[in-house]
User: Fold these one by one.
Assistant:
Number 1:
Amino acid sequence: MKSFEVNFDGLVGPTHNYGGLSYGNVASQSNSQQASNPKEAALQGLAKMKVLMEMGFVQGVLAPQERPDVAALRRLGFAGTDAQVIEQAARQAMPLLVASCSASSMWVANAGTVSPSADTADGRVHFTAANLNCKYHRSIEHPTTSRVLGAMFADSKHFAHHAALPAVAQFGDEGAANHTRFCREYGEAGVEFFVFGRSAFDTRYPAPQKYPARQTLEASQAVARLHGLSDDGVVYAQQNPAVIDQGVFHNDVIAVGNGEVLFYHEDAFLDTERVLAELRDKLARCGGNFQAVCVPRALVTVDDAVRSYLFNSQLLTRADGTMMLIVPEECRKNERVWQYLQGLTAAAGVIREVKVFDLKQSMQNGGGPACLRLRVALNETELVAVNPGVIMTAPLYDTLTQWVEKHYRDSLRESDLADPQLLLECRTALDELTQILKLGAVYPFQIN
């Protein structure tokens, strides 16, 4: 049976703004308070989806969330009508209003962790929504994320959904941004690779000193248990604390994997040789040939990687079995990174092609191509069971483009978030979107 790796890209929401909310994310903090362009951001994301669809990749779309999150503001003590809640928050606690308006759900690599049916004990595709409890503005996402994923992957014969882990520091879970999977074929059993920044209970693991380590070992282990993964099909690795302190807030800012290939920076992990050996050994038991492509620090520094988002690229398998990297424009603008990429493809190794996309609006807020997509490996039967409304087609692309043009603003500043009209615009747009994507009622304003 044929199998596919489907990339479900996050559709940028109408309240996309530069609030500088993500401590430890250099781009997010350095562009704080600048004017954003939600319309341009959404269109840039859609353009990437369209190109990959036209190249023959199966491409899906994942809906954004309702923002501002008025219910979250009510839980913090603001009262009255929706407009009054927004007005009070703007006057008394503007940072809370900014957090409640974040469009960070666009980075669906953090939406959850997905294990394909070939790896799980019950033969179903398993989803666990990420609690994202390290940052308040992201911690409020998982209830809607669970409903949206449930509407996309609704057939319980093929799909199993788990609630987010307990929202405490010991089980900090950032989803697929710290998880990848290696396999010979997408429909065959593989090895799931969980990368963590710290251990909540085991003091043998060093922790970063400047920025928080968002993913815990205990969270990764809990997800593996929930998904029914075997010990032989899992490898855990600790992210290098020193690179976290240089702005590598997720593993997908310093490494990316797909198929049998891991593309990583020399400084990405602790105990790198052990990690690579374990991946090689366990993938060999699955019939695979693990290949590690190391980027030396002498050619590309960690700072280069963070500024260019070289590793926050999509590593995609081409029809001939070789790999293609989808990178942001910032890689071409960094002389050392671009020189490295030119040499990489010229060497005729496993990575043969680099394709560049302009994702400036997302990049300025700290998210590149890999942040914008959640990967789901599906066989033919499972793909048929997915809600067809969320699979990208040429007509759907046209419809979504028109929808963005109709509903999105082309400029948004912090002061605009206090406008109650923005909430009405967002709800009107999302109500129409659920009809376009055939999701049903997934947003609080549609349910309550």
Number 2:
Amino acid sequence: MEKHLQSNAAITAIGTYTPDKILSNADLERMVDTSDEWIVQRTGIQERRIAADDQYTSDLCIRAVRNMQERYGVQVEDVDYIIVATSTPDNVIPSVAAQVQAGLGIKHSGAIDIQAACAGFTSAIQLANGLLLSGVYRKILVIGGETLSKVTNYEDRTTCILFGDGAGAILMEAGTAAEGDILAISSHTEGAGGHHVYRSGLSPSINAADIDTTSRIVQNGREVYKWALSHVSEGITELLRDSGYEPSQINWFVPHNANQRIIDALCDRTGISEQQALSSIERYGNTSAASIPLALDAAVQDGRVLPGHLLLLYGFGGGLTQSGVLLRWSI
């Protein structure tokens, strides 16, 4: 379902964080039957970041917000709402968003987690946009954060090569200049295919230290690849068509970074130039809900993304769910 929006909600700041520890392809060669050449050829990944044993998703999310504050000088103590997209919460209860609220010293705000897997960040933007347009809220933190290394089976060479940890945060505010508008959104879910990507055996835990070590990501990569090429490419084409834009008008395409082969194939099928696609896959691997803000922020920091640029953010993954956001960048 695509919605064309008349909006005055915009992104006003962005920040990211990745852990210090690097897991390279050479490291993985010593762990499982694989090779750097095999991994790069099939995924485009050269390394990924891994959270410390005592570092959890909420820690990464807080660091991403701190990074945003340091760079943009924004205050977050007065945010009205916090939305965290994650598939790897510290606990089932309390939410990561509640832990972020406490960690940042925010006294009065709503706080929720959402779980839309790799479409989580774009889905969270859509929710925040709706809350801001309601007029009830004025300032919302949207965060995508994952510690996928804690639920990765490092004996399964088909999945352990893919996943890394990281977080990205944006501040969304109402009443900003029109050039920063969220222009259009779309979302589609095909739940019948949900068994192709899932997290096994999740048990509630009371403390972060008690995180369920039996829970693992399970993925049928072949089926997910086929779905992405057909259904996700259709979703992207539909969003652009219904919002009145041609692929050539998009300055930057920021897809979920599942792997480089999927990104290249989506570009080919939608008519978006590969030079327009922003990727974080080489350095960070597949970071699920964090992949889009990581790729976007890298391009903001190096000057590729500029105010006035038209951006298409598009998440897709477990569910099987896809969601897109077309926006005009303003910072």
Number 3:
Amino acid sequence: MALALSPAEFAGIRSRHPLVFQRSWKKRSVPFLVVGGTILYVLYAWWFFAIGAVLSEGRWDRAGAYLADWVSYDVRPTLRFKGEGIEVTYPRFNVLGDNPDPDWVRQVDGRTVEVDVGGARIAATPDLVTITHAGETLEVDLSTGTPTAAEPVPGWAVQKEDEVDADFGFTGSVEIKANRVAIEHRFLGWANFIFDPNSPFFGRSTGEVISLILWGDRLDPDVSNAALAFDNFWNNGEWQHGDVYAKLLQTIIMAFVGTVFAGLVAFPFAFLAARNITPSRLVNHAAKRFFDFQRTIDGLIWALFFIRAFGPGPIPGIAAIFFTDIGSLGKLYAEALENIDEKQREGIRSVGAPPSAVQRFGVLPQVLPVFLSQALYYLESNTRSATIIGAVGAGGIGLKLLEAMRTNQDWENVFYMVILILVVVYAIDGISGALRSRLAGNDHH
């Protein structure tokens, strides 16, 4: 039963013991000090790293262009003026193959070419370029030798010193100069993802491809159309599916082998590091310092070291994961051993069992599920780490990803590989999560 005090009794107690009811100024000031310190630190970090200047000078337009390249592709026809005629040319390497003839580019006659770029229409002659977009029309005079836009210039166009540029948003743009009109037309999706321009299936509709595979005449007398289609997909020159999947498998193997070997080596050393298992302080200290040394050096540094020793390839990646995880898993295993229930050990020891039996039946049943659960978690984590390690030369999809990024043009390939990595990590996460749940005894099936 709670003791109820009248206001008068409470006031009497407070008057007799004022210090009990008086809050210390130190306790009252702690929240203000924490908030003030946090604000000062944020301001200092903002100044030290010049975050304001970085944000103001950032090329956000480039970021948008890179993101667009992840999910789209462009075709770049160029209208070149040859005397009184116009020639339509394309870059040497383009997604339309060696003989491009898109239906949105029409050669009306020798002097006129019409191009549809999304919601814009361009009609070009050697003397005049007319652009219609968003309900507005812009005429650019080329007869004087310098492109000159007629007034008023719409908001989507810009008159420069020796050229006129027009931007149609995501769908594309046009650059008009005295001797040529350079057009960019962007399309949503990934070009030539299934077949590249060198494939006999290139340019055919889905129905035609299926018909050829199922009952059409052989395109190559030596192999069936189905085998030819798979070979053309697997060895796609632009997307390199076969090489990408081989590198992805290499990354998974790197993570798996490195984690398994690290767990096997960390297992016996953990018993030496656990104080309740090995009574020698010298052995405990030596084993723990060994773990500290292994995990203090990051896996990326180990990878660089082993690349110098063994050269590029998966072996340095496996060795880097192996050496790093020995320390991390060893420390976790040792802590799990030090937190076991000693009653089970005492019970087995009381019946006269030898030390090996005490460890086998009194310790392992308690810690083995924990050991396996932690190893599975590190396997999931190392799948992501193996990608970063591979980027420095240790093989796997990380190196393939870095090569695609270096070209600064194959961002759709980068996105493709990122999606594959996400799918693999998600799958390993689900599998390891289910196994950890089963090991922990939480399986409800």
Number 4:
Amino acid sequence: MARKKPAPLGPLKFERRDVRAGEIGIEISHCGVCHSDLHQARDDWDNTVWPCIPGHEIVGTVTEVGEGVTRFKVGDRAGVGCMVNSCQQCDQCKMGEEQYCSGPKSCTLTYNGPNKPDGSNTYGGYSTAIAVREEFALTIPEAIDSEHAAPILCAGITTYQPMKYFGLKEGMTLGVAGIGGLGHMAVQIGKALGARVVALTTSSEKKDAIAKLGADAVIDIHDEDAMEENAMTLDLMVNTIPYKHDLNPYLALMKPKSQVAVVGNFLGFDDLDTATMVFQHVGVTGSLIGGIADTQEVLDLCGKHGIRPEIEMIRMDEINTAFERMQEEDVRFRHVIDMASLRDDRDAADKAVKVADPERGEVVG
């Protein structure tokens, strides 16, 4: 966990609260490492609640079921993505878009809370266990190993959602900007939906690896000839780049009446070329993860089509190195933490720090 900015992650020992009616308890076996985890742990968005325990690509085994639970039993595999609660009553929730919940409770994120109504912090998947409402737990298809299922719960749904919303289908051309943890899933999902996929990268050394994912074309955006040749050819772009960058070269690739869906950059764009947007009728839109039903849908799609994230397994005590490598774009393409390493790490437990957390129960160190 991160105790404060800009400290590295370190061990924390705490107790989760008891499983309530309508909830399941999960012993976490794997958790993906998302670029959002790095941003949140370093307070890049100026909204981090300390202490911060990241992790929202969670897979594990059900260890307990609360009263009224019908979809899961002890021993089942289950997943938890970016949300653990919402009002379930507002129009957005009723449409299966809990991520946009506008009710009095709103959407509660898996970590960095806050829990409603008391405002206490939520702690994520860089831990050994979690409790979650049954409505926010995902069924893991038998065809997908737990370590490969974990990244689908954020990287998969985040890129699938705009493809579904804008009706990506056979005969259309999809551009994917930024081929990292999210982008490499977008390439595979776009191909499964029948589209021609053009991968856009600033790292020419990635070209062979990206081509192996199934991309029909791989373009280095610094290659002026290739960019000119592909001008006005894309029906939809999923832009996964997680930091400020120049969007204008990408706009030139878009067909009239096309859309650029921004899924990774919360920090804005400078000097956006609105003239191209106006004269080519190009929309720039945002898209936030996806609802629970669509997350299950993309899990099932990945199971059916053999889509798997390319992962590198790490131990929990390697997380700070993983963050550094992710920032340097030195991972192909997603780190996944083996949570058995955390349970086995007695040294980490001995060095744990005490914190008060009334929502989650008495904390011990």
